[in-house]
Amino acid sequence: MKTANHTEVREFIFQGFSSFQEHQLTLFVVFLTLYILTLAGNVIIATIIHIDHHLHTPMYFFLSVLSTSETFYSLVIIPRMLSSLVGLSQSISLEGCGTQLFFFLGFAITNCLLLAVMGYDRYVAICNPLRYLIIMKWRVCAMLASSVCATGFSLSLVQAVAIFRLPFLRKNHTLVSEFTFQGFSSFHEHQLPLFIMFSTLYILTLAGNTIIVTIISFDRHLHTPMYFFLSTLSASETVYTLVIIPKMLDNLIGPSRPISLAGCATQMFFFITLAINNCFLLTAMGYDRYVAICHPLRYSVIMNKRVCIQLLGGACSIGLIVAMTQVSAVFRLPFCTTKVAHFFCDIRPVMKLSCIDTTVNEILTLIISVLVILVPMGLVFTSYILIISTILKIASAEGRKKAFATCTSHLTVVIVHYGCASIAYLKPKSENTKDQDQLISVTYTIITPLLNPVVYTLRNKEVKDALLRAIGKKLS
Fold it and tell me: Where, by residue number, does the polypeptide cross the bilayer (predicted)?
Protein backbone atom coordinates (compact mmCIF):
# COMPACT_ATOMS: atom_id res chain seq x y z
CA MET A 1 0.00 0.00 0.00
CA LYS A 2 1.05 3.57 -0.52
CA THR A 3 -0.43 6.86 0.66
CA ALA A 4 -1.26 9.71 -1.71
CA ASN A 5 -2.73 13.18 -1.14
CA HIS A 6 -5.50 14.35 -3.45
CA THR A 7 -6.69 17.96 -3.80
CA GLU A 8 -10.43 18.39 -3.51
CA VAL A 9 -11.69 19.12 -7.04
CA ARG A 10 -14.99 20.88 -7.77
CA GLU A 11 -14.39 22.08 -11.32
CA PHE A 12 -12.13 21.57 -14.33
CA ILE A 13 -10.43 24.10 -16.62
CA PHE A 14 -9.98 23.49 -20.37
CA GLN A 15 -6.53 24.28 -21.74
CA GLY A 16 -8.06 24.36 -25.20
CA PHE A 17 -5.94 26.11 -27.82
CA SER A 18 -3.79 27.99 -25.30
CA SER A 19 -0.63 27.13 -27.28
CA PHE A 20 -2.10 29.07 -30.25
CA GLN A 21 -2.65 32.24 -28.25
CA GLU A 22 -1.88 34.67 -31.12
CA HIS A 23 -4.19 32.83 -33.56
CA GLN A 24 -7.23 32.44 -31.32
CA LEU A 25 -9.33 35.10 -33.08
CA THR A 26 -8.58 33.50 -36.45
CA LEU A 27 -9.49 30.08 -35.07
CA PHE A 28 -12.70 31.50 -33.64
CA VAL A 29 -13.77 32.87 -37.06
CA VAL A 30 -12.88 29.61 -38.86
CA PHE A 31 -14.61 27.38 -36.33
CA LEU A 32 -17.67 29.62 -36.06
CA THR A 33 -18.08 29.60 -39.86
CA LEU A 34 -17.79 25.80 -39.97
CA TYR A 35 -20.21 25.49 -37.07
CA ILE A 36 -22.85 27.70 -38.74
CA LEU A 37 -22.48 25.74 -41.99
CA THR A 38 -22.82 22.45 -40.06
CA LEU A 39 -25.97 23.58 -38.27
CA ALA A 40 -27.51 25.07 -41.41
CA GLY A 41 -26.69 22.00 -43.54
CA ASN A 42 -28.07 19.47 -41.06
CA VAL A 43 -31.19 21.53 -40.33
CA ILE A 44 -31.87 21.92 -44.09
CA ILE A 45 -31.45 18.15 -44.66
CA ALA A 46 -33.76 17.21 -41.77
CA THR A 47 -36.39 19.80 -42.82
CA ILE A 48 -36.41 18.82 -46.52
CA ILE A 49 -36.71 15.12 -45.73
CA HIS A 50 -39.54 15.83 -43.28
CA ILE A 51 -41.50 18.02 -45.74
CA ASP A 52 -40.95 16.23 -49.09
CA HIS A 53 -42.95 12.99 -49.21
CA HIS A 54 -40.75 11.68 -52.07
CA LEU A 55 -37.96 11.35 -49.50
CA HIS A 56 -40.02 9.34 -47.01
CA THR A 57 -37.95 6.20 -47.56
CA PRO A 58 -35.78 4.19 -45.14
CA MET A 59 -32.56 5.62 -46.57
CA TYR A 60 -33.62 9.23 -46.01
CA PHE A 61 -35.27 8.43 -42.70
CA PHE A 62 -31.90 7.27 -41.35
CA LEU A 63 -30.18 10.26 -42.96
CA SER A 64 -32.55 12.68 -41.19
CA VAL A 65 -31.96 10.91 -37.86
CA LEU A 66 -28.19 11.12 -38.44
CA SER A 67 -28.42 14.84 -39.30
CA THR A 68 -30.44 15.52 -36.16
CA SER A 69 -27.98 13.57 -34.04
CA GLU A 70 -25.00 15.38 -35.61
CA THR A 71 -26.67 18.73 -34.86
CA PHE A 72 -27.02 17.95 -31.15
CA TYR A 73 -23.53 16.40 -31.13
CA SER A 74 -22.01 19.69 -32.28
CA LEU A 75 -24.20 21.72 -29.88
CA VAL A 76 -22.74 19.76 -26.95
CA ILE A 77 -19.13 20.72 -27.73
CA ILE A 78 -18.59 23.64 -30.09
CA PRO A 79 -20.40 26.58 -28.36
CA ARG A 80 -18.29 26.10 -25.23
CA MET A 81 -15.12 25.80 -27.31
CA LEU A 82 -15.95 29.03 -29.17
CA SER A 83 -16.66 30.91 -25.94
CA SER A 84 -13.26 29.89 -24.53
CA LEU A 85 -11.56 31.14 -27.73
CA VAL A 86 -12.87 34.70 -27.15
CA GLY A 87 -11.79 34.83 -23.52
CA LEU A 88 -14.94 33.74 -21.68
CA SER A 89 -14.77 31.34 -18.71
CA GLN A 90 -12.85 28.14 -19.45
CA SER A 91 -13.89 26.38 -16.24
CA ILE A 92 -16.65 23.77 -16.02
CA SER A 93 -18.22 22.23 -12.95
CA LEU A 94 -17.89 18.53 -12.16
CA GLU A 95 -21.61 18.08 -12.96
CA GLY A 96 -21.31 20.08 -16.19
CA CYS A 97 -18.33 18.01 -17.31
CA GLY A 98 -20.19 14.76 -16.56
CA THR A 99 -23.23 15.98 -18.52
CA GLN A 100 -21.11 17.03 -21.50
CA LEU A 101 -19.26 13.69 -21.49
CA PHE A 102 -22.56 11.78 -21.31
CA PHE A 103 -24.13 13.56 -24.30
CA PHE A 104 -20.90 13.59 -26.31
CA LEU A 105 -20.47 9.81 -25.95
CA GLY A 106 -24.20 9.16 -26.44
CA PHE A 107 -24.41 11.02 -29.75
CA ALA A 108 -20.98 9.82 -30.95
CA ILE A 109 -21.88 6.13 -30.43
CA THR A 110 -25.35 6.71 -31.91
CA ASN A 111 -23.78 8.22 -35.05
CA CYS A 112 -21.41 5.27 -35.46
CA LEU A 113 -24.25 2.76 -35.16
CA LEU A 114 -26.52 4.80 -37.47
CA LEU A 115 -23.85 4.64 -40.19
CA ALA A 116 -23.76 0.85 -39.73
CA VAL A 117 -27.57 0.70 -40.07
CA MET A 118 -27.41 2.86 -43.22
CA GLY A 119 -24.86 0.41 -44.63
CA TYR A 120 -27.28 -2.45 -43.93
CA ASP A 121 -30.07 -0.48 -45.67
CA ARG A 122 -27.90 -0.09 -48.80
CA TYR A 123 -27.02 -3.81 -48.68
CA VAL A 124 -30.70 -4.79 -48.67
CA ALA A 125 -31.57 -2.26 -51.41
CA ILE A 126 -28.87 -3.50 -53.77
CA CYS A 127 -28.57 -7.22 -52.92
CA ASN A 128 -32.29 -7.91 -52.21
CA PRO A 129 -34.18 -5.23 -54.19
CA LEU A 130 -37.38 -7.27 -54.60
CA ARG A 131 -37.68 -7.79 -50.84
CA TYR A 132 -36.47 -4.31 -49.85
CA LEU A 133 -39.86 -2.91 -48.84
CA ILE A 134 -40.67 -6.07 -46.85
CA ILE A 135 -37.34 -6.20 -44.98
CA MET A 136 -36.95 -2.45 -44.41
CA LYS A 137 -40.54 -1.69 -43.42
CA TRP A 138 -41.24 1.29 -41.20
CA ARG A 139 -41.56 -0.70 -38.01
CA VAL A 140 -38.11 -2.23 -38.60
CA CYS A 141 -36.63 1.21 -39.34
CA ALA A 142 -38.13 2.68 -36.16
CA MET A 143 -36.86 -0.29 -34.11
CA LEU A 144 -33.35 0.05 -35.58
CA ALA A 145 -33.23 3.81 -34.91
CA SER A 146 -34.53 3.47 -31.35
CA SER A 147 -32.18 0.53 -30.62
CA VAL A 148 -29.21 2.54 -31.88
CA CYS A 149 -30.11 5.51 -29.65
CA ALA A 150 -30.77 3.29 -26.62
CA THR A 151 -27.45 1.46 -27.10
CA GLY A 152 -25.53 4.72 -27.54
CA PHE A 153 -26.87 6.37 -24.42
CA SER A 154 -26.76 3.18 -22.31
CA LEU A 155 -23.05 2.74 -23.06
CA SER A 156 -22.53 6.46 -22.51
CA LEU A 157 -24.19 6.29 -19.10
CA VAL A 158 -22.02 3.33 -18.05
CA GLN A 159 -18.84 5.08 -19.20
CA ALA A 160 -19.71 8.44 -17.62
CA VAL A 161 -20.66 6.83 -14.30
CA ALA A 162 -17.46 4.75 -14.29
CA ILE A 163 -15.27 7.82 -14.90
CA PHE A 164 -16.99 10.09 -12.40
CA ARG A 165 -16.75 7.46 -9.69
CA LEU A 166 -13.03 8.21 -9.65
CA PRO A 167 -11.93 9.92 -6.40
CA PHE A 168 -11.85 13.54 -7.63
CA LEU A 169 -13.24 14.61 -4.24
CA ARG A 170 -11.16 12.36 -2.01
CA LYS A 171 -8.43 13.54 0.40
CA ASN A 172 -5.60 11.67 2.08
CA HIS A 173 -6.70 8.08 1.43
CA THR A 174 -4.56 4.97 1.17
CA LEU A 175 -4.15 3.42 -2.28
CA VAL A 176 -4.25 -0.39 -2.28
CA SER A 177 -2.06 -2.32 -4.72
CA GLU A 178 -2.97 -5.89 -3.69
CA PHE A 179 -5.66 -7.91 -1.88
CA THR A 180 -5.59 -10.91 0.46
CA PHE A 181 -8.40 -13.50 0.55
CA GLN A 182 -9.81 -14.36 3.97
CA GLY A 183 -11.21 -17.52 2.36
CA PHE A 184 -12.24 -20.21 4.84
CA SER A 185 -10.31 -18.71 7.77
CA SER A 186 -13.29 -19.27 10.10
CA PHE A 187 -13.00 -23.03 9.40
CA HIS A 188 -9.30 -23.14 10.33
CA GLU A 189 -9.37 -26.56 11.97
CA HIS A 190 -11.24 -28.08 8.99
CA GLN A 191 -9.08 -26.67 6.20
CA LEU A 192 -7.34 -29.96 5.36
CA PRO A 193 -10.64 -31.91 5.03
CA LEU A 194 -12.00 -29.01 2.93
CA PHE A 195 -8.90 -29.15 0.73
CA ILE A 196 -9.32 -32.91 0.16
CA MET A 197 -13.04 -32.61 -0.53
CA PHE A 198 -12.70 -29.62 -2.93
CA SER A 199 -9.71 -31.21 -4.70
CA THR A 200 -11.70 -34.41 -5.28
CA LEU A 201 -14.71 -32.49 -6.62
CA TYR A 202 -12.43 -30.36 -8.82
CA ILE A 203 -10.70 -33.41 -10.33
CA LEU A 204 -14.09 -35.03 -11.00
CA THR A 205 -15.34 -31.79 -12.61
CA LEU A 206 -12.31 -31.51 -14.90
CA ALA A 207 -12.44 -35.21 -15.80
CA GLY A 208 -16.20 -35.22 -16.41
CA ASN A 209 -16.28 -32.11 -18.59
CA THR A 210 -13.19 -33.19 -20.53
CA ILE A 211 -14.78 -36.60 -21.22
CA ILE A 212 -18.00 -34.95 -22.46
CA VAL A 213 -16.13 -32.57 -24.82
CA THR A 214 -13.95 -35.41 -26.13
CA ILE A 215 -16.82 -37.85 -26.72
CA ILE A 216 -18.95 -35.24 -28.50
CA SER A 217 -15.99 -34.17 -30.66
CA PHE A 218 -15.15 -37.70 -31.83
CA ASP A 219 -18.57 -39.45 -31.97
CA ARG A 220 -20.40 -38.41 -35.15
CA HIS A 221 -23.73 -39.61 -33.66
CA LEU A 222 -23.52 -36.64 -31.28
CA HIS A 223 -22.80 -34.00 -33.94
CA THR A 224 -26.18 -32.30 -33.40
CA PRO A 225 -27.09 -28.79 -32.13
CA MET A 226 -28.03 -30.13 -28.67
CA TYR A 227 -24.61 -31.73 -28.13
CA PHE A 228 -22.79 -28.83 -29.79
CA PHE A 229 -24.16 -26.55 -27.04
CA LEU A 230 -23.45 -29.20 -24.38
CA SER A 231 -19.78 -29.53 -25.43
CA THR A 232 -19.43 -25.72 -25.47
CA LEU A 233 -21.00 -25.51 -22.00
CA SER A 234 -18.62 -28.20 -20.70
CA ALA A 235 -15.60 -26.39 -22.14
CA SER A 236 -16.80 -23.10 -20.62
CA GLU A 237 -17.40 -24.74 -17.22
CA THR A 238 -13.88 -26.23 -17.32
CA VAL A 239 -12.21 -22.84 -17.89
CA TYR A 240 -14.60 -21.27 -15.33
CA THR A 241 -13.33 -23.60 -12.60
CA LEU A 242 -9.69 -23.08 -13.64
CA VAL A 243 -10.12 -19.34 -13.02
CA ILE A 244 -11.17 -19.78 -9.37
CA ILE A 245 -10.49 -23.16 -7.76
CA PRO A 246 -6.65 -23.58 -8.06
CA LYS A 247 -6.09 -20.30 -6.18
CA MET A 248 -8.67 -21.30 -3.56
CA LEU A 249 -6.99 -24.71 -3.02
CA ASP A 250 -3.58 -23.05 -2.78
CA ASN A 251 -4.83 -20.76 0.01
CA LEU A 252 -6.38 -23.72 1.90
CA ILE A 253 -3.05 -25.51 2.45
CA GLY A 254 -0.93 -22.53 3.43
CA PRO A 255 -0.95 -18.86 4.38
CA SER A 256 -3.18 -16.79 2.11
CA ARG A 257 -1.04 -15.31 -0.64
CA PRO A 258 -1.87 -11.80 -1.88
CA ILE A 259 -3.24 -11.15 -5.34
CA SER A 260 -2.38 -7.98 -7.24
CA LEU A 261 -5.04 -5.47 -8.27
CA ALA A 262 -4.49 -6.44 -11.92
CA GLY A 263 -4.68 -10.16 -11.04
CA CYS A 264 -7.92 -9.63 -9.13
CA ALA A 265 -9.42 -7.66 -12.04
CA THR A 266 -8.37 -10.41 -14.48
CA GLN A 267 -9.93 -13.12 -12.31
CA MET A 268 -13.16 -11.14 -11.98
CA PHE A 269 -13.26 -10.48 -15.75
CA PHE A 270 -12.99 -14.16 -16.70
CA PHE A 271 -15.34 -15.24 -13.91
CA ILE A 272 -18.08 -12.83 -15.05
CA THR A 273 -17.54 -13.56 -18.75
CA LEU A 274 -17.78 -17.33 -18.34
CA ALA A 275 -20.63 -17.21 -15.78
CA ILE A 276 -22.79 -15.08 -18.10
CA ASN A 277 -21.75 -17.17 -21.07
CA ASN A 278 -23.01 -20.27 -19.23
CA CYS A 279 -26.34 -18.57 -18.43
CA PHE A 280 -27.00 -17.77 -22.08
CA LEU A 281 -25.74 -21.16 -23.30
CA LEU A 282 -28.38 -22.78 -21.07
CA THR A 283 -30.94 -20.44 -22.68
CA ALA A 284 -29.78 -21.51 -26.16
CA MET A 285 -30.09 -25.16 -25.09
CA GLY A 286 -33.64 -24.45 -23.88
CA TYR A 287 -34.49 -22.90 -27.25
CA ASP A 288 -32.99 -25.95 -28.98
CA ARG A 289 -35.25 -28.28 -26.94
CA TYR A 290 -38.27 -26.06 -27.70
CA VAL A 291 -37.65 -26.27 -31.47
CA ALA A 292 -36.94 -30.03 -31.31
CA ILE A 293 -40.23 -30.82 -29.53
CA CYS A 294 -42.59 -28.09 -30.74
CA HIS A 295 -41.34 -27.87 -34.37
CA PRO A 296 -39.72 -31.29 -35.05
CA LEU A 297 -40.28 -31.23 -38.83
CA ARG A 298 -38.48 -27.87 -39.17
CA TYR A 299 -35.78 -28.61 -36.56
CA SER A 300 -32.86 -29.12 -38.96
CA VAL A 301 -33.85 -25.99 -40.92
CA ILE A 302 -34.27 -23.70 -37.87
CA MET A 303 -31.29 -25.02 -35.89
CA ASN A 304 -28.80 -25.05 -38.75
CA LYS A 305 -25.07 -24.68 -38.21
CA ARG A 306 -25.06 -20.92 -38.80
CA VAL A 307 -27.81 -20.32 -36.24
CA CYS A 308 -25.97 -22.42 -33.65
CA ILE A 309 -22.75 -20.44 -34.18
CA GLN A 310 -24.70 -17.15 -33.99
CA LEU A 311 -26.30 -18.19 -30.69
CA LEU A 312 -22.88 -19.17 -29.31
CA GLY A 313 -21.35 -15.90 -30.56
CA GLY A 314 -24.18 -13.93 -28.97
CA ALA A 315 -23.69 -15.66 -25.61
CA CYS A 316 -19.93 -15.01 -25.63
CA SER A 317 -20.35 -11.39 -26.76
CA ILE A 318 -22.84 -10.58 -24.01
CA GLY A 319 -20.50 -12.13 -21.44
CA LEU A 320 -17.51 -10.09 -22.66
CA ILE A 321 -19.42 -6.78 -22.83
CA VAL A 322 -20.96 -7.17 -19.37
CA ALA A 323 -17.63 -8.27 -17.86
CA MET A 324 -15.78 -5.27 -19.30
CA THR A 325 -18.51 -2.93 -18.02
CA GLN A 326 -18.64 -4.46 -14.55
CA VAL A 327 -14.86 -4.77 -14.03
CA SER A 328 -14.27 -1.20 -15.28
CA ALA A 329 -16.88 0.13 -12.85
CA VAL A 330 -15.51 -1.82 -9.86
CA PHE A 331 -11.80 -1.17 -10.39
CA ARG A 332 -12.25 2.57 -10.84
CA LEU A 333 -13.19 2.72 -7.16
CA PRO A 334 -10.54 3.74 -4.63
CA PHE A 335 -9.80 0.89 -2.19
CA CYS A 336 -8.77 1.45 1.43
CA THR A 337 -8.58 -2.08 2.87
CA THR A 338 -6.97 -5.27 1.58
CA LYS A 339 -8.82 -8.26 3.08
CA VAL A 340 -11.43 -9.72 0.73
CA ALA A 341 -14.06 -11.62 2.75
CA HIS A 342 -14.24 -14.36 0.13
CA PHE A 343 -12.10 -17.00 -1.62
CA PHE A 344 -12.00 -15.24 -5.01
CA CYS A 345 -12.52 -11.77 -6.51
CA ASP A 346 -16.30 -11.67 -6.62
CA ILE A 347 -18.05 -8.35 -7.29
CA ARG A 348 -19.68 -7.49 -3.95
CA PRO A 349 -16.81 -8.56 -1.64
CA VAL A 350 -14.37 -6.41 -3.64
CA MET A 351 -16.72 -3.40 -3.70
CA LYS A 352 -16.97 -3.56 0.10
CA LEU A 353 -13.27 -2.59 0.26
CA SER A 354 -13.91 0.80 -1.35
CA CYS A 355 -13.32 4.09 0.49
CA ILE A 356 -16.40 5.73 -1.03
CA ASP A 357 -20.12 5.05 -1.26
CA THR A 358 -20.80 2.28 -3.80
CA THR A 359 -24.56 2.78 -4.22
CA VAL A 360 -24.22 3.50 -7.95
CA ASN A 361 -22.14 0.36 -8.42
CA GLU A 362 -24.64 -1.68 -6.39
CA ILE A 363 -27.48 -0.44 -8.63
CA LEU A 364 -25.44 -1.23 -11.77
CA THR A 365 -24.70 -4.74 -10.44
CA LEU A 366 -28.38 -5.31 -9.65
CA ILE A 367 -29.50 -4.14 -13.11
CA ILE A 368 -26.92 -6.38 -14.80
CA SER A 369 -27.88 -9.32 -12.56
CA VAL A 370 -31.56 -8.92 -13.46
CA LEU A 371 -30.73 -8.76 -17.18
CA VAL A 372 -28.34 -11.74 -17.26
CA ILE A 373 -30.15 -13.98 -14.75
CA LEU A 374 -33.89 -13.24 -14.75
CA VAL A 375 -34.23 -12.53 -18.50
CA PRO A 376 -32.59 -15.79 -19.72
CA MET A 377 -34.26 -17.72 -16.86
CA GLY A 378 -37.63 -16.31 -17.96
CA LEU A 379 -36.94 -17.33 -21.57
CA VAL A 380 -35.97 -20.87 -20.51
CA PHE A 381 -39.06 -21.37 -18.36
CA THR A 382 -41.30 -19.89 -21.08
CA SER A 383 -39.85 -22.40 -23.55
CA TYR A 384 -40.53 -25.21 -21.06
CA ILE A 385 -44.15 -24.12 -20.61
CA LEU A 386 -44.56 -24.40 -24.39
CA ILE A 387 -42.65 -27.71 -24.41
CA ILE A 388 -44.81 -29.25 -21.65
CA SER A 389 -48.04 -28.09 -23.33
CA THR A 390 -46.85 -29.77 -26.56
CA ILE A 391 -45.77 -32.98 -24.79
CA LEU A 392 -49.17 -33.31 -23.07
CA LYS A 393 -50.80 -33.34 -26.51
CA ILE A 394 -48.81 -36.43 -27.56
CA ALA A 395 -51.18 -39.40 -27.74
CA SER A 396 -48.89 -42.26 -26.65
CA ALA A 397 -47.48 -42.55 -23.14
CA GLU A 398 -44.19 -43.84 -24.59
CA GLY A 399 -43.92 -40.74 -26.79
CA ARG A 400 -44.54 -38.43 -23.83
CA LYS A 401 -41.95 -40.29 -21.75
CA LYS A 402 -39.33 -40.03 -24.50
CA ALA A 403 -40.00 -36.31 -25.02
CA PHE A 404 -39.72 -35.63 -21.27
CA ALA A 405 -36.48 -37.64 -21.12
CA THR A 406 -34.78 -35.31 -23.63
CA CYS A 407 -35.48 -32.32 -21.37
CA THR A 408 -35.02 -33.49 -17.78
CA SER A 409 -31.20 -33.34 -17.82
CA HIS A 410 -31.18 -29.76 -19.11
CA LEU A 411 -33.98 -28.67 -16.76
CA THR A 412 -32.13 -30.09 -13.74
CA VAL A 413 -28.96 -28.11 -14.57
CA VAL A 414 -31.02 -24.97 -15.29
CA ILE A 415 -32.83 -25.04 -11.92
CA VAL A 416 -29.61 -25.48 -9.93
CA HIS A 417 -27.60 -22.97 -11.99
CA TYR A 418 -30.16 -20.15 -12.05
CA GLY A 419 -31.27 -20.89 -8.49
CA CYS A 420 -27.74 -20.42 -7.07
CA ALA A 421 -27.09 -17.35 -9.23
CA SER A 422 -30.38 -15.73 -8.13
CA ILE A 423 -29.65 -16.32 -4.43
CA ALA A 424 -26.08 -14.99 -4.81
CA TYR A 425 -26.76 -11.81 -6.81
CA LEU A 426 -30.42 -10.87 -6.42
CA LYS A 427 -30.78 -11.12 -2.63
CA PRO A 428 -30.37 -8.02 -0.39
CA LYS A 429 -26.64 -7.51 0.22
CA SER A 430 -26.89 -7.72 4.03
CA GLU A 431 -29.15 -10.77 4.21
CA ASN A 432 -26.53 -13.53 4.61
CA THR A 433 -23.37 -13.88 6.72
CA LYS A 434 -19.92 -14.26 5.14
CA ASP A 435 -19.96 -18.05 5.68
CA GLN A 436 -23.42 -18.39 4.10
CA ASP A 437 -22.29 -16.32 1.09
CA GLN A 438 -19.23 -18.55 0.69
CA LEU A 439 -21.37 -21.70 0.89
CA ILE A 440 -23.57 -20.38 -1.93
CA SER A 441 -20.43 -19.47 -3.92
CA VAL A 442 -19.03 -22.99 -3.42
CA THR A 443 -22.26 -24.35 -4.89
CA TYR A 444 -22.07 -22.37 -8.13
CA THR A 445 -18.28 -22.52 -8.54
CA ILE A 446 -17.69 -26.20 -7.67
CA ILE A 447 -20.97 -28.15 -7.45
CA THR A 448 -22.72 -26.73 -10.53
CA PRO A 449 -19.81 -27.37 -12.96
CA LEU A 450 -19.67 -30.97 -11.63
CA LEU A 451 -23.44 -31.35 -11.98
CA ASN A 452 -23.25 -30.79 -15.71
CA PRO A 453 -21.22 -33.93 -16.63
CA VAL A 454 -22.87 -36.06 -13.91
CA VAL A 455 -26.43 -35.29 -15.05
CA TYR A 456 -25.71 -35.51 -18.77
CA THR A 457 -23.72 -38.73 -18.39
CA LEU A 458 -25.94 -40.65 -15.96
CA ARG A 459 -29.32 -39.48 -17.30
CA ASN A 460 -28.56 -39.31 -21.03
CA LYS A 461 -28.71 -42.57 -22.98
CA GLU A 462 -26.99 -41.18 -26.11
CA VAL A 463 -23.97 -39.95 -24.13
CA LYS A 464 -23.75 -43.27 -22.24
CA ASP A 465 -23.93 -45.21 -25.51
CA ALA A 466 -21.21 -42.98 -27.04
CA LEU A 467 -19.03 -43.54 -23.97
CA LEU A 468 -19.51 -47.32 -24.21
CA ARG A 469 -18.64 -47.23 -27.93
CA ALA A 470 -15.46 -45.27 -27.16
CA ILE A 471 -14.46 -47.73 -24.41
CA GLY A 472 -15.25 -50.67 -26.70
CA LYS A 473 -13.06 -49.29 -29.48
CA LYS A 474 -10.20 -48.71 -27.08
CA LEU A 475 -10.42 -52.25 -25.67
CA SER A 476 -10.63 -53.81 -29.11
Answer: 25-48, 60-81, 101-120, 140-164, 194-215, 227-245, 265-287, 307-331, 363-392, 404-426, 438-458
